[in-house]
């Protein structure tokens, strides 16, 4: 009779059925299942996720760069307007006042978007770390269940041969429990790392930071501060001190009061040609064409930075850790090329205006050249 029936008939409601103690589902993997687990750890398809993470970080960097360039451009326009007004000695116009009020609101929005974008980049880097750790975790699960299966097989063979007496058979560990334990251990190790170790030395974050800084500083601005200054001692990102490297947790010093303007060439120091795929070193900040740099680096050992006067050493084995694809330099090269093309077009227009057809002795003179005067007496 069910409990519901007993309650309806007026029987005691304290009657209860003793349930067995809960046991999590545990089953040992077969040889085929272990082979599948091994294959999964080696061939797990993550290329699509990696591509989406790369594209998201790239778009976040370009977005932050664009909004800061617009803010800087409007600031420069306001400064130029003020300078012209002061030269004329006129009063502040309504247009100038409107632009000042707009810049205050616009700067707040830019800072808020930058803060959320910077956090999104760090979150994406964390997701990538999880993807990369997942292969090792699955491999760890495979190694654990394989070791248990081997031990159980050895015990069974020993009992069949009569070498050992009756021994209690080992209980198979839960695959889910093994996975959770390894995952928790990996997360604990990752969280124990500093913000500098997790993000500042990461290529994606370095590229994002470079785009952000160059948009704030402009072509005439100081160089990007060292990566060790991108985070405070508490692990918080330095958000609004991109130009000088200042932020919470940093004290003023002489090096921050006056920072020399950074002079950057778009030509590779190795090829002496404009770069197409620029890679920048994290330590010395010098940039090179990737193909030329890989050709320059030896297969083993280290080489000194080819930039004159730099003592930094490079290693092919540490290439991915020491260099990053400099998207800020890519955009700078694009701007320089556009400016050069515009200048060439203007020069062509000037040449066309000065190319008058001059006839000397019935012949057409060479365009752009002044015809020679005839000598007297000839």
Automatic annotation (TrEMBL):
Stretches with biased composition (Acidic residues): 343-357
Annotated GO biological process: double-strand break repair via homologous recombination; protein sumoylation
> Localized where?
Nucleus
Gene Ontology cellular component? nucleus; Smc5-Smc6 complex
Superkingdom of this protein's organism: Eukaryota
- Where is it chiefly localized? nucleus
Pathway as given in its UniProt record: Protein modification; protein sumoylation
Cite the entry's keywords alphabetically: Metal-binding, Nucleus, Transferase, Ubl conjugation pathway, Zinc, Zinc-finger
SP-RING-type domain residues = 253-338
Keyword Acetylation found:
no
**Which CDD domains does the annotation name?**
SPL-RING_NSE2
PROSITE patterns named in the record: ZF_SP_RING
Region of interest called Disordered, as start-end residue ranges on this chain:
79-98, 150-169, 335-378
Pfam short name (any one)? zf-Nse
Q: Which InterPro entries match?
A: Nse2(Mms21) (IPR026846), Znf_MIZ (IPR004181), Znf_RING/FYVE/PHD (IPR013083)
Belongs to which family? Belongs to the NSE2 family.
What name does the UniProt record give this protein? DNA repair MMS21 protein
């Amino acid at each position: 009779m069910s409990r519901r029936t007993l309650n309806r008939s007026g029987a005691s409601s304290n009657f209860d059925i003793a349930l067995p103690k809960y046991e999590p589902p545990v089953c040992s993997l077969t040889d085929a299942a272990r082979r599948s687990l091994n294959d999964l750890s080696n061939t797990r398809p993550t290329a699509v996720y990696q591509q989406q993470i790369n594209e998201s970080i790239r778009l976040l960097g370009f977005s932050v760069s664009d909004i800061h360039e617009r803010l800087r451009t409007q600031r420069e326009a306001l400064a130029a307007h003020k300078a012209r007004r002061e030269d004329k000695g006129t009063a502040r116009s309504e247009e100038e006042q409107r632009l000042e009020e707009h810049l205050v609101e616009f700067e707040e929005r830019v800072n808020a978007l930058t803060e959320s974008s910077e956090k999104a980049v760090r979150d994406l880097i964390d997701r990538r770390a999880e993807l990369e750790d997942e292969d090792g975790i699955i491999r760890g699960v495979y190694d654990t269940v394989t070791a248990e299966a081997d031990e159980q097989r050895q015990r069974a063979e020993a009992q069949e041969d009569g070498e050992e007496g009756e021994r209690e058979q080992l209980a198979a560990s839960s695959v889910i429990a093994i996975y959770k334990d390894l995952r928790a251990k990996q997360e604990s190790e990752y969280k124990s790392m500093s913000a500098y170790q997790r993000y500042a030395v990461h290529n994606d974050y370095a590229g994002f930071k470079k785009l952000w800084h160059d948009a704030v500083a402009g072509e005439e601005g100081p160089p990007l501060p060292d990566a060790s200054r991108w985070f405070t001692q508490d692990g918080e990102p330095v958000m609004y001190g991109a130009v000088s490297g200042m932020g919470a947790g940093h004290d003023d010093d002489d090096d921050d009061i006056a920072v020399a303007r950074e002079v950057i060439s778009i030509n590779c120091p190795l090829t002496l040609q404009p770069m197409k795929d620029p890679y920048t070193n994290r330590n010395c900040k010098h940039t090179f064409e990737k193909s030329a740099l890989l050709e320059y680096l030896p297969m083993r050992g280290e080489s000194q930075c080819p930039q004159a006067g730099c003592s930094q050493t490079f290693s092919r084995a540490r290439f991915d850790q020491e260099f990053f694809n400099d998207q800020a330099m890519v955009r700078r090269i694009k701007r320089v090329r556009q400016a050069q093309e515009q200048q060439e077009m203007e020069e062509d227009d000037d040449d066309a205006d000065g190319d008058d057809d001059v006839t000397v002795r019935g012949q057409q003179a060479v365009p752009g050249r002044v015809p020679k005067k005839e000598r007297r007496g000839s």
